[in-house]
């Protein structure tokens, strides 16, 4: 389903624009304080045989940060290339005996963020650009951000994380406070771009979301009730012999007692 305004017309400013496309994570690291924002959340994951979530680790290509709580996950620096995960497949491993890939895709992060783009606005202006086309910057699990976690908020690795314990990534994110703080980062950036006469075009992916999202919540991370989270509870009850109707009623009652 594609929804659009049939009377929409391209704005006049776009007709003569010089557009510069930016993949935020690979552009410039303006705030190292957000590089470990998802240390505890990790990258997607899987449910183990014991029924608990096993999170994949993030690979950091930022050369490490001060007092790094994840030094063992630093795979390289800004100028290093991530290894192709296919090197770990059985058919390719003989050709890459020294491969150390974790066989996971899109979990390599270099630390580029919105502050980094704002820091370079004068440079971008100097080369003659009049508009910036941003790859998705909404909260998402992957480095490319085409698998939205939350459409309404800036990703904390691009914005400003707020932890449950001040300054400690290992304490996990305070989601509500992180959303508010990160949104302020984007608002300040948008204002700075406008003041320099630079338009912003934000890429959005609205025909699907990620499994690691508030809408689906396969890994049961978020305060919101995701579709997977709901139906998993329903079918767990059905598998004990209850009817689907009774199972749904019980699950709804359980959720009604929880502040969402």
TrEMBL record:
InterPro entries from the entry? GH, GH13_cat_dom
**Gene Ontology MF term list:** hydrolase activity, acting on glycosyl bonds
A Gene Ontology annotation in the biological process aspect, one of them, is: carbohydrate metabolic process
Please indicate which superkingdom the organism of origin belongs to.
Bacteria
Q: Which UniProt keywords apply?
A: Glycosidase, Hydrolase
Q: Which intervals hold domain Glycosyl hydrolase family 13 catalytic?
A: 21-159
- UniProt protein name: Alpha-amylase
The organism named in the record is: Clostridium perfringens
